[in-house]
Backbone:
DNA sequence: GATATTTCGTTCATAATGTGAATATTTTAA
DNA sequence: TTAAAATATTCACATTATGAACGAAATATC
């Protein structure tokens, strides 16, 4: 009896694992499409767009700081910032207190564009939530949180 | 009264949208890390790995077919297949019925590697599910399905 | 104060992911 | 038979990213 129930359990688990894998893959694809859309809509390579969105209540950022937030190499940030400067969205000044450091900040155009992007992204997520009713939304977020925690826990063990 | 409740609702929705955006971003990051891990573990660029996993019960695939499944340009597939051939994981033969077409299939080594990857990925998702109890797993999958549908519905409208 | 070490940003070589136009070859339709 | 369509490849280009090497400036050590 114990063995049979264990076997059924294993079978269910296999099915659920398959389903989870599939759902995650489809969501990833969906997010990939959204990236492309955003990138086209705002005429920015997506990495530059993400970089722009880091200035959120923060007047100045450094290359190092941006690299940490984006979790990329500093050399990558140098290139991203160069692109954003060429597009007139950010500007660089030398830190008066430390000549090694360059302080990067949004221009007026950059500020405006970042607000546009932010508004668009918020609206997008709002629309997703509005596909559900109140109770579903609440539960969905809870279970998504649960999944995220589970994924991160497994990721920790992976190393 | 109606106005007040509507305003509270809007406030809640804003908070939930923020939370959803955050959760999705973290899950994306987690998946990105998993891609890197898989890629390193199986000594394959991730795109080649995905390509390898398409032979699942299917003996032969064509460049066009792979391009459709991966949703990339045919020229991309040409390069991926070239890489997999160099690694001895797939092989190409001319279709005897149509000289334009090249039939691509797994080598023995490719078959073996693809099974290894499959087993590893199944185990990974199994571990994620095992972070939860039976009821949580079932609900989580339902709500993830709901989210996926909502995301795709919104994406449809986006165009 | 002089020297060694660390920090910060840049440049360069390299790799992976991907598109789209042009091309060659073969098949199918007119 | 000729025109059109399908299949795969090549090439130029764009984006995302890393890591080593480097120069300049700040900090620690002697």
Residues:
């Amino acid at each position: 009896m114990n063995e049979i129930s264990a076997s059924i359990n294993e079978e269910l688990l296999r099915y659920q694992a398959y389903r989870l894998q599939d759902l995650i893959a489809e969501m990833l694809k969906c997010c990939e499409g959204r990236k492309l859309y955003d990138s086209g809509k705002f005429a920015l390579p997506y990495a530059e767009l993400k970089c722009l969105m880091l200035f959120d209540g923060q007047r100045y950022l450094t290359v190092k700081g941006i690299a940490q937030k984006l979790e990329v190499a500093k050399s990558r940030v140098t290139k991203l910032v160069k692109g954003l400067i060429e597009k007139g969205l950010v500007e660089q000044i030398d830190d008066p207190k430390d000549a090694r450091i360059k302080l990067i900040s949004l221009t007026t155009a950059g500020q405006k564009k970042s607000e546009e992007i932010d508004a668009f992204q918020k609206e997008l997520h709002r629309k997703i939530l509005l596909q559900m009713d109140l109770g579903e939304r609440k539960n969905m977020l809870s279970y998504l949180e649960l999944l995220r925690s589970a994924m991160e826990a497994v990721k920790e063990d992976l190393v």
User: Anything to note?
Assistant: The longest strand of chain B covers residues 90-94. The mean pLDDT of chain B is 95. The CA atoms of residues 67 and 74 of chain B lie 5 Å apart. The first helix of chain B runs from residue 2 to 41.
